[in-house]
DNA sequence: TACATTTGCGTAACTAGTTACGTAATTTAT
DNA sequence: ATAAATTACGTAACTAGTTACGCAAATGTA
């Protein structure tokens, strides 16, 4: 049991901050893990690797849609992956606005080691979810609700009812 | 049901990213909400307000411990709150390293309106957790596990077992 | 009392996301 | 065929967190 934790003490009020704290914790712990293993990638490169492995070539917009993140976020990630030579780009021949992204040979060669790391990450998630079988389903429920009507809209409506 | 969501498709692999996506979504939606209501504060000021309302005076270190965040994070938040004149500081008389933080009159006057906003936020969380009564308990379980042994340590051990 | 250690907090540099804006290429509409 | 609207993506400026480092004040120790 965590002692003296204000966020737990204040219950529902602290829930969003606890979620943020947890995800931040995992984020920086993952960085730490990569560093310890001597792998020179950032946590948020993981899904880009997976997407490009599966689809060979994707544009910035396609990736941002599939990950449901803003396109500038993807642009930033891609820039760093390019700097480390994990990603290459070429302009689409039929639409010169589009940048086709693909994994470089360096990336392909690194994949086996990376995939082992990611497997270890999955094992950790399984550990953390042990006795928590509904967590994923519960999360999906929340995602669905928020997808249908945003947190902001809901809160505005709730405020007007007070 | 969310369509074509790569993060859901890949199951456990996408879980941490989904949690991050959810907390980011709530974060920016909360900003949006404050803006819509015409309240000039940031989401992460909320807990500082609550702590200082409860304890009158706290130091940077005390706040960072209670929220379990790094002290530079608190320093940054406080700086912005000071710029908007919601927080005042005075140097501790017995230990001149310590900065005592307190809510200004402007903050005290703003509190009633803010508290109404936060009440609306709680109602929203209740909505989102409807049919999800175990979510909080489940979250606490994960926090406990990660508190005992970090995500990094767990993953390193899992990697060695592969 | 002098010196080493610890504590408090501030800054710098970094990743990580957002919204807002701009521009060029493509598509649509008139 | 030309003008308008849309799309793709890049940049800027912002909040939000971290780790690493530095310095001065306080504390512990010889």
Structural class of chain A: mainly alpha
Structural Rg of chain A: 20 Å
Summarize model confidence as the mean pLDDT of chain A. Answer: 93
Return the CATH architecture of the domain at 40-107 in chain A.
Orthogonal Bundle
Largest interface: A-B, 79 and 79 residues
Give the oligomeric state. Answer: homodimer
Helix and strand run of chain A = HHHHHEEHHH
Q: Compute the separation of the termini of chain A in Å.
A: 35 Å
The CATH superfamily of the domain at 40-107 in chain A turns out to be Winged helix-like DNA-binding domain superfamily/Winged helix DNA-binding domain
Low-confidence stretches of chain A: none
Q: Largest sheet of chain A, order of strands side by side?
A: 1-2
CATH topology of the domain at 40-107 in chain A: Arc Repressor Mutant, subunit A
| Coarse shape of chain A | globular
| DSSP, total strands of chain A | 2
Q: Share of helix among residues of chain A?
A: 55-70%
- Largest sheet geometry of chain A: 2 strands, antiparallel
**Range of strand content of chain A:** 5-15%
Briefly, what CATH class of the domain at 40-107 in chain A?
A: Mainly Alpha
């Amino acid at each position: 049991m965590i002692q003296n934790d204000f966020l737990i003490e204040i219950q529902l009020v602290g829930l969003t901050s606890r979620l943020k704290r947890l995800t931040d914790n995992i984020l920086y712990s993952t960085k730490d893990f990569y560093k310890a293993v001597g792998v020179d990638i950032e946590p948020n490169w993981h899904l880009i690797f997976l997407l490009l492995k599966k689809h060979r070539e994707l544009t910035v917009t396609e990736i941002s849609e599939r990950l449901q993140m803003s396109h500038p976020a993807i642009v930033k990630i891609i820039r760093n992956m390019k700097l480390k030579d994990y990603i290459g780009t070429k302009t689409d021949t039929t639409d010169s606005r589009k940048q086709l992204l693909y994994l470089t040979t360096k990336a392909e060669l690194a994949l086996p080691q990376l995939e082992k790391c990611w497997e270890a990450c999955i094992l950790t998630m399984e550990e953390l979810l042990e006795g928590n079988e509904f967590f994923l389903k519960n999360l999906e429920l929340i995602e669905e609700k928020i997808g249908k009507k945003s947190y902001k809209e809901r809160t505005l409506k709730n405020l007007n009812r007070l």
